[in-house]
Amino acid sequence: MKQFLQIFTTCSLLMSGLSLSTSAQSTYVVMGRVTDAATGEGIPFASIALKGKTSGTTSDADGRYSLRLTQLADSLIVLSLGYRTSAYPLLQQASQTINARLTTTATKLKEVKVYAKGGDPAYRVMREALRRRDEYNPAKMLAYQYESYTKVEGYINNFAQKRKNNKKPGPIGRLLGKLPAITDENGQPAVPVFISETVSNFYARSQPEKMKEHVLKSHVTGVGVSDGGLISQLTGASFQQYNFYRNSLNILQKDIPSPIGSQWETIYRFRLKDTIVLNNAVCFAIEFTPKRTSDLAFNGTLLIDTLHFSLAQMDARVDKRANINFVDELHIEQDWETTPSGLRFPTQTQVMIDTDEPTPRAPGALIRFFTSASNIVENQPKEVGFYDPSIELSDDYKDTDAAFWQRVRPASLSPREYRAMEVVDSVRNVPFMKVAGEIIKLGVIGYKPLGKLNVELGPLLYSYASNTIEGQRFRLGLRTNTGFSRKWLLSGYVAYGTQDEKLKYSANIEYILSRKPWTVIGVRQSYDLERIGVSADNIGNNSLFGAYSRFGTIRRAYFQEEKLAYFRREMGRGFTQTVAVRNRSFEPLFPFAFQPQLHDQDQTVRSSYQITELISETRFAPDEVILQNDNVRVSTGAIRKPIFTLRYTLGLRNVLGSDFTYQRIALTMKHSFRMGVLGRSYYTIGAGIIPSTVPYPLLYTPLGNESSFYVGNAYNLMNYFEFICDRWATVQYEHNFGGLLFNRLPLLRQLKWRELVTAKVLVGGVSSSNLAVIPAVDGNGQSVESFSSLTRTPYIEVGYGIDNIFKVLRVDAIHRLTYRDNIGRTGIPVTPFAIKVSGWLAF
């Protein structure tokens, strides 16, 4: 569901603060309810359209619909997945009610009475289905492949609701009301803002577990997006995998337990409703509901084959009572059909996400996904190397026409869908929506394209800073895009400080040797202000914290000139190797000195040095999916398997003026795992050693955090540069209970708060030889700033907190358990307890 994040961002930015009262001018009104002819229950999301016209709508969750028209046809067509299409004559009158009763394509059997001891007989059926789960789980097949078609639609809706006190709509609301629109399932106008269609070949195998999608054709249109490769990959089959045989489904960054997963009896109640015939197979119809309505769990109906006890159909919902932000309802319908070998496979999946309005009178958003699988081939695995990369775009994936899509669609589009495709192009070209789209792209990507120059300005996050050394820092960064070249990527920046009056710069040239496997070579030269312990190597990918670290008081600052040459290649799925040569200088702006190594002829105490390093980094992330965004690769993260990183650094003395020979080895592992109903845990384990004698800026400096914000990869109650290590081991752990406790407290349930706990432990030390390198005074007789090291007592901090406050804020209470009286060489008292905040848009 990664693609939902960008589509949701589009809809959220467009609808925030909007409120509009509109009156649809219509001559005819047709309303009624679509029901199952056998059960009388409402049929949700049925398509209702005029015969031979483009006007249409869909039924709501209870099967009701309302259609406002300017002209009538002779009949009304009603159709829904799994039911026979029906037509009803229309009268030439202003208002009429037509209640449609659809007959299922599945044949209901005569009444069957089942007698069982020990509760509802559904539990006996479920136990047998669970026992045979591995026999019918597609993930357990040796291999499978199929042809996939996916369609994604995004709409802004609910903006025509009446406002209190009959207030007039605001200017933005009036603009939204004037946009081209279609009629939604409630008979209200809805503005389409995103539509995509993708055709691909999908491959999977087990032992080892591999997946690959080859995107053949794709068409994307919408506000704030273009028909680019990144969106085409996000809207393909790779992110539409809904396997209910897994213990949980990861949807909207949430782990929702499956009703046929290992926690089925702990979380759900079951009731045997009936038996029906579906595609010539007799099936049990079993209703399931969460034991606690506030739990993050599905409710709905599933069909189990009575002969094989395999899943035949799934209808699952999550409503607004569950702890998911911004979602009013999540609905998944899935059909499983029998393959030639006798197994069942999900051949059609429909997903609907109806968002909750941000404010009582604001518009909402509706996202629909449709996926179909055809021409399924089983147990014919490809060679392991075939599955790399995991997502691949055909060179001509954009070359399509209307006739092609008409031919490859598994079913013809409804009139409403045809109308939406016509309208979305008009919507995106409205000046107001164009501006909104540019704002969305700037917020998501961080770069602003400069017209037809094929150059982008950014990242804007680093454009300005203010600190005690540079004063007011201004930075201008540029990079090229694929319009410039699909092989060469040029980037760089210039920065200037009004106080130090120094010009800083960086220039990077990268050349793509191969896209399959991904292979690049690059060089970089830079000169900029840095600070010990808060360098780019320590901060990692936390760009927000990196930008923040440029503000305020900067201690232990130095200027660094760096020359870097690197080679990076993807050796296999999740296996990336990087080799680099780096030469850098150290010019301190604080009292610093070091004693040269014993074998140096010149034993004069020095304050600056040069170092040349050979760096080898091996990264293994077997569960990670990498997307290609033009010339830039984007990681979608990993869920089930850990990520390992091994980094080895060798200092080369007398190479390009280098002053030291040294070695550094560091290994880290990052992982997260689900703990059933208790929530999800995240942890990072790291260890390293520097078995050499070097000045302390070359040793390991744990990342501290002196800000008021919580930083995930930092020790949040440790000061900057508080400790130095040449051998270390660390564990950082966080567990989010996902509202396990708060969901059960009546007064807190509506707030949707989520409780969490954290713990961070660091052990390490410094050898006596590295302590002896630092003299008491420098060559001018000034006192030299030294450093603190850990003793046998580990550094420990623990915390507890609440996130999802107002859906965006997180508050952590953190206790420092050791070194509580440590002032050390930094001269800054430590904080034994602090409240820190952070925030992000989470589901």
TrEMBL record:
Keywords: Signal
Signal peptide: 1-24
Record has Transport as a keyword: no
Listed SUPFAM superfamilies: Carboxypeptidase regulatory domain-like
Protein name per the record: Carboxypeptidase-like regulatory domain-containing protein
Natural source organism: Spirosoma linguale (strain ATCC 33905 / DSM 74 / LMG 10896 / Claus 1)
